[in-house]
Amino acid sequence: MKKSGDKQDDKKDNAIVLFQLNALASEPHRSNFLHCVARGQQNEAENLLNKPMEKGNYKNLLLAKETFTDYSGRTFVCTAYEYAYWAKDTHMCRILEKHMDENIKSEMLKRCETIEKGGLKYSQQLNQTDGTQRVEQFCTKHFDFTPLKTALERYIQGFYNWNWDERKTAWMAVGIAQRDLPVHVINEYCRPDRTFHPLPAFNEDKLPRVVTYYNYNIRRDVSLYPLVISGSSGLGVDFALIRGRFRPAAVRVRRCGSGLRAACELAAVSHLDEVRTIDLKQSVKNLG
Predict the structure, then answer these.
(1) Cβ-based neighbours of 265, under 8 Å, separated by 6 or more
(2) Tell me: the pLDDT tens digits for 232-269?
(3) Structural domain spans, the chain
(4) Do residues 97 and 105 lie in contact, with contact meaning Cβ atoms separated by under 8 Å?
(5) Are 164 and 233 in contact (CB under 8 A)?
(6) Do residues 200 and 194 make contact, with C-beta atoms less than 8 angstroms apart?
(7) Of 140, 73, 64, 123, whose CA–CA distance to 96 is shortest?
(8) pTM of the model
(9) Are the CB atoms for 93 and 85 separated by under 8 Å?
């Protein structure tokens, strides 16, 4: 025969079991949410925040700090907002901010301040020239556009002094740098509603999360992701992306032509970097 105290114990046990079941059920959602954010799947990420099961428990998603990997092979252990802030994906930042209460904003502000002081750690699997791979550890404050800008500058400056083999090597260096771009930058390359010429303001309210480009070899649009790199084909092997005043396309050096088209790319990428860096200041204000 159970005593009254036993009934209270049963209620506690049931509550613990229910909590554990809810926690287990939410684990896949947290992992999926982080991957959606890292891969620029903005609608999918917001849908998870709006799910009835998560609506009263959205803190679990916004404060979840788990392991996830982006399209460029960078592996992080952080929250979704920390990643978006590091990547300068301020379109994603604005979506996440909409779902934060004051306590979460305060916590995210602290984490962003920590990033600005000491950087955000991540590891990345890198391909070596001999075909093998190695994993390197990094800690940076934000994604750095410098490698892409430097590759474009080198192509522009050397174009008229090089033969076609030298031009190809320099153009493929542009493609290699593009492999590391956070997906929101690729979205800017691929968005269907405007080009890189004339120079965009990059101040649109919405960013179409498009990752398809035109492949001249097979004469159709294809998705850039997941990145498929082999010894004979792939981004940085036999093509680099270009936008300019036309549709986004995978082009070899002969189709890219003179350094003038690359100069258009350089101007757009440099301006995008400047605008998103300024946008991060607004992120800090939104959290404060």
Answers:
(1) 152, 174, 196, 242, 243, 244
(2) 899 999 999 999 888 888 888 777 767 888 999 999 99
(3) 4-125, 145-277
(4) yes
(5) no
(6) yes
(7) 64
(8) 0.88
(9) yes
